Structures are given as C-alpha cells and as structure tokens.
Amino acid sequence: MSETPVIKEEHDEHTVVPSSPAATPSAETQAPVSTEREKTETEDGEHEKKKRKTTSKTVRKPSEEVLQRRREGRIKAAATIAQNLKKTGIGRFEEQNGFKLTAVKTVPLINQKNYFADYLKKDEQATLIRNWRNEKQSGPTVGKGGAKGDKKTEEDDDDDEDDENDENDNEDNDDDDNDNTTGEHRVKVRAGHDTIVFHPGSSCIRLGRATEPAPTAVPAVVAFKREIKEMDGHRKTPLRTVNEDGEVDFGSRFDEMKAVVTKDFKARMRYYKRRIQQNSRESAADFNSKQVGEPIDDHNDPEAKSWLSPDDEFLQKNEFIAGSKALQIPITESLNTWHQRFPVVNGMFNQDPNVYRSPQELYGDVTRLTLAALEEIGVGTTPQELANLKCLFVIPDLYDKAYIETWCDLLLHSVCFGKVGIIQEAVAATFGAGASSACVVDVGAEVTTVACVDEGLIINDSRIRLDYGGKHITEALTKLLLQQNFPYSDIDLSFFNDDWQLAETIKQNYATFNDADIAVQLYDFYKRKPGQKTEKFLFKVFDEVMLAPLGLFYPDLFEIAKDVRERPLLPESFDQYTGEPNNPYSKAHENLQFGSAYSDMTDEALLIKLAEEKANSKQSSAPKALNTQGQIDTSSPVTAPLDKAIIESITNAGIATDFNKAKKLYDNLLVVGGGLAKFDNFDVLLNDRINIWRPKFLSSSTLDDVLAYVTKEKDKTDNKRKQMIEEAKKKKAGGKSADDIELTEEELEGIENATQYYVDLDRADGLSDQGQTVAVNVLPPPKDYDPRELTWKGGSVFARLKVVNEMWITAADWELLNSRTLYYKSLFNY
C-alpha cells in the first residue's frame, strides 16, 4: 500500500498562523434582532472600514528607493560642507591626528550624603606637624648608656622622656656645637644653650643665648663709606632759629604746647603742695649763659671714648661696618667720608628712598647688622656653625606681616640659622615678669605699644601702636635745654656717635617724674668730639627734666609729622585668595586712629557705645578673621596720649572677654622698655593720669550691671519703635495689606524723634555707686632687673620650655610653604 505523503507547510516569519480555527456561531445561540438594529450595525461597520483605510494610508512607510536617495543626499551635503571647511582651513582631521572631540572624561555626579572626607581634619595631615613628629620618632633614642658615637641633644631627652622630673630637663647631653664629642665624653649643657633669643628694635638689638642672665645690646646702626666732598645744606637737629638777642626759637606750635604742659605741671605741684620758687627758669638760664667748657685730660675723663683713627687699617679694608664699631668711627663735618644709616625705623624697615635705593641694599644692611651682633656675643658666624643654632625671634604685638616674613626669610637663608621660632613681645614680657595676665605697656625708642595678655594669649582688639617713644623725649629735652641757654649751643643730634649719645646720657641721668626733685639743680656733662679734647660743662636745670617726659601724655609736644609713610621697597601683605590686605586688626587702635576713644566720650554716649559693642561681641561668638572689620593703616602715625591708650586697650579687652578681667588688667600694669620705666616715680604719675582720664563708669566694679540696665532699656525703646512703625503702616493702608506700604521720611523721622533713647544717668549712677572703684596698680619689675631687658628675659624663659620644640621652622619648611609655616608653627592666630 502506498502511504499518503505528508506535506509540511513552510510559513514565512511574517505570516500569522491562527492557533485555532475561528469559532462559527450556531444558529441556536443567535438571538432575534430587529431590522433597525441590523441597519445601524451595518452603517457602523462600513464607517470603521473607511477609518482603517484612511489610517493605513497616513502611516505608510516610504519605499527603499526614497530612503536611499535621502541617504545619498545627506552624504553628498556633508561632503560639500567638509570640502568648504577644508578650503577655509578650519576642517576637522580626527582620522589623521587621532584627536577626539574632547579629552575631558565625564565624571558622574555623586551623592555627597554617602561620602565622608577627613581632609585637613587631623594634625597628621599637616606636612609640618607630620615632619616634626617623624623627626621626633626617628631621632636618636639611645639612653645615657648608648653606643659610642651616638649624639643626643637635650631636646631629644625632653621629647623621649616626658615623664622625667624637671631636674632632668636641665641635665643634657651633647651640645650641637661640639663636633668632636664622642659617646664616651658627653658634654652636658643647659636647656636653651643652642638657642639665640633675638629682639630687634629701632635703636638697638638685644640678643644672647637663652641660658645667659642678661642680653647684649648692640646699636642698630650701619656705617658705610661714600665719597662726598661737602655736606651741602646740612642743618642742625633739632631745627632752630637763633634771634638777635640769642634766644632759641622752635616755632609757635612748640611754644604753645610747652605752655600747656607747664600749666599741667604747675597744677600737679599745687595738688601735692610742692612750692615753686619764682624766677627759677630765669636764674637757671642766666647761669647757663655764663658757662664755658673746661678741657680735661683723657685720664680724668670718667667715660673716655676711644675713636678709630681715620687711617686705621680696619676702616681702609671695610666698606660697611655695623654694630658698636660703627659708633667709634670719627664722623664730623670735616671727616664726612663715612655715613650712618638705620635699617629699622619706627619698628619697621627703613624704606626712605633717600637712604635705601633698593630692597637688596636694605636686606644687606640687616644681614650685616645681625652677623655683627652675633660676633659681639661670641657666636661663630659661619653657615656651618649657625646651622646648629636656633633663633627665637621676638616680634611686635601689632605686627606687619611683610616685616615678619622678611625677617624670617633673612634669618633662615641669609644669616643661615638652623631653626627659627617667633613669640610676641607682650607675651614674652609676661613670661619675664612671671605674670599670667597683664596690660603690657612697652615704651621703646621710637614706638610705644599697649597690649593686654590673658593667660598667655594677647587679646587682639586690645593692641595699640603709638608712633612716639624715648627718642622723642630726648629731642624735646634738648629743645627745652637750648631755650634755657644750654652751654653746648651747637649740639647736633644728627651726629649719632657723639652728640646724640650726650643727649641720651643727660636724659637717663637727670629726667624724672619725682616732684620732690623739681628745683634748680646743678649738673655737669662731658662733651666728647672726635679729634678734640674732652670738655666738661656745668649747667642748671629746673622743670625741663619733667616737662620732656610729660610729652608721653601730651604727644603734640614732640611735633611728630603727620605725613603718610610710603612703602616703596616692601609692599603691603595681601591675602593670596581674596587679594585683600591681611595685616592684623585691632579695634582699640582703630578707635584712637579716628579719634573716637572711650575716655573722650560723654557718660551717656559711653554707656550706649559700650552696650552696643558688648552685644555685638556676644552675637559673634565664633572667632573672626584678623581684619574682617577693616584694615589698620600703619602708614599714618597715631599719637594719642599714653594714659588714654591704656584705658582704650583695657576697655576693648573687657568688651572682647569680660569686664571682670578688666579689673585684673588694671591691677597688673606692666611697664617695660627704656622710654618710661627708667624714670623715677613713673608708677605714681601713671596711676594719677589714668585715674584722671578714666570715666566714672569704667572705674566701677558694677559696670556689667550698668550695661545690663542700659541694654534692657534700649531693647524696650527699639520694640516701641517697631510697634509704632507697624501701626503707622496699618493706618496708612486703610484695612488693606500693610506689607507693601512704605512710610515717608517725615513719618520715619517723627517716629524716630518720638522713640529716641535717653539714658537715665541718675539710675546708672546709682548702680555704679553700689560697686567699688577699680584700683590701678603698676607692677614693679623683678628685683634688680632692668625693665629694658624684661621682654628679652621672657623670651629666654620661653625658649627653655618643651612647647618651643613644636614652633621651630627650618629652611626646608620655609621653602615648602613660605609664610604659611607661621600659621602652623605659632601659638597665636597668625
């Protein structure tokens, strides 16, 4: 039998094969319908068929030929554009050079909530701190019985054995200077033996090893050789005019201020019931006019000065001479080959274009002066010897960053110290006096500073810099003596090596604040000029020895020029990110600069101002940047009286912290420097001057209660003013929304006048009288210690502490981060 072949159907992939045959409705299931319903369904079916046909026509795809023609057209257009671009020279050549459209890879965004970074949140992430810790850990750790040849300094002992007694801090191992030391012979030195405490000033540099009891003062002067045939236009200092009758005139302004100071002096003498004899000035002037010099031999001169010979070999082979030897050069009007200049003036670098023509010339003198000072204290000046030494640099309180950074760079790279650290003057003074908190008044040669120190840190808003000092007292005393027919009428203070030294000696020996010493007194002095025989003069003084120091409280007597000091050599420091000046800011200094001192205000204005400032200080609890409120203008001199400056400094310190600390600051006035502390009875006079100018409310111990009352009443007035403004707006709106209503200037002025705040002084006086008067006390310097050296002594004490090891800056650190190292390596906010 033949089988029937099975034919398999091949379906195209686009052919739709039904899964099952369509079901045919049976006649039994069909229900009878009416003729009208059948007609309606027929019309609907025809309408759907037409709609499907129309839709199929609109979505019909183009043919392959049409698509191909479109594709070729686009390619042809692109080729034409590329050809045109190639002709113009701006074509793209990705295929030839392999460049992509962009080399920047797209970085996907991240959700910051899922990530955490501790960048710069740990000390180990700061390079300087990490290097110091690594050096500390990797340093020599061999004990006293270590292997031969191991060297271990005292600082290593202190770091490795923190649990040792303080006695072990003074027991040290090898000194860095002893290169021949072996493990068998260990030279023990005291802590700080390899540290030089360096305190530069306008008149001298005080320096020495931290282990020495006192520093060495080296004059900050540099002599240089310059051929000048004659001194054209030279005028004697101070400038004077001699009348026909022989009277010396210094101008009407000086005479007016002399009369003001004399009036205050007489009032003080009457208060203390000191009798003043009539015609005392005339008798002293008449005696002085008849005096002539008495030549004396060198062996009879108590302080004979040795001058270098003009033909000396030392002068012939040197072009520059710095330090004490520069004062031994015979410089006169006839011997004018050598000249003198001072690298540091007014606590800053000397940028006078008539003295220094370039920064390199200035830096050269600073380096020569530093090396000469190191030679005078017996320290080797070769780079190999200085590399083993450390330098603790004492900087001003209200410093200039460019000045500090330049000094650090010179000490590390030009002088070649191994390490350098910094400390502020006021902090060093408290270390020297052994006081944790004090108001430090530093009267220097050309600059006077006031700063309040609280537990080892300076309160920034209390810093004040005044542009007068002991040099101006010397000039004022010279003017007063010349008006009294001073026997040496040709004295010229521009000759620093002889006449200036004479005026300084007279001031130091005879100037005083002691009322009992004010009478016609007979004194003598020795005139020493190079190439001439020493002469002895007698002269009489009366009140000149007290009027000149009183200029500290009447600075107009000094006739300080108000000219703006230019900075052609050393530009001002600016922030690298914002471009704004970043020198430190002080509220107290700004108030004195613009003449808005608290001691000059009325009682009502004082209380309102204090309440506002105290409220602002409480609102800004976070520490501010150094100069967020403004920039201290150091180019304009500030010449406020010293007593008002002290009151301003302590008041701003109380605002920044607490007025209870102001009581402690008034009780701990520390006066350092040679401009004031060397005068007899200066503490009594300073106490009297502060009590005279200090307002009553600042003298009360209940100042906080008074300010609380003023603040409460002021808040009530402010709330009343706001309420009146809202009511006026609602009334003007007439029932509508008052948000967009604005009051006129007349309406606001009326509300302001109606709600003007007045302090009830009777109530404030009552609260003030409930307290006690805050006493003023001037701390005496340590026994048998010169107050001029107290700041240096504090630096030497600080240099022997363990904490100083964290402050050292090396040359490698400075080259890596430059001035940023001072931010990491200083104990204050640089």
CATH topology value of the domain at 241-305 and 469-558: Actin, Chain A, domain 4
Any low-confidence stretches, pLDDT <50, length ≥5? Answer: 1-40, 53-57, 140-187, 621-630
**Overall radius of gyration:** 43 Å
CATH class of the domain at 241-305 and 469-558: Alpha Beta
Trace the largest sheet across and list its strands.
3-2-1-12-13-22
Task: Count every helix, treating DSSP H or I runs of 4 or more residues as helices.
Answer: 27
Characterize the biggest β-sheet. 6 strands, mixed
User: Structural class, please?
Assistant: alpha+beta
Q: Any idea what the CATH superfamily of the domain at 241-305 and 469-558 is called?
A: ATPase, substrate binding domain, subdomain 4
- Relative strand content: 5-15%
Distance between the termini: 116 Å
Helical amount among residues, as a percent range?
A: 25-40%
Number of strands: 22
Shape: globular
CATH architecture of the domain at 241-305 and 469-558: Alpha-Beta Complex
Protein name: Actin-related protein 8
InterPro entries: Actin, ATPase_NBD
Region (Disordered): 1-73, 131-192, 280-302
Organism: Candidozyma auris
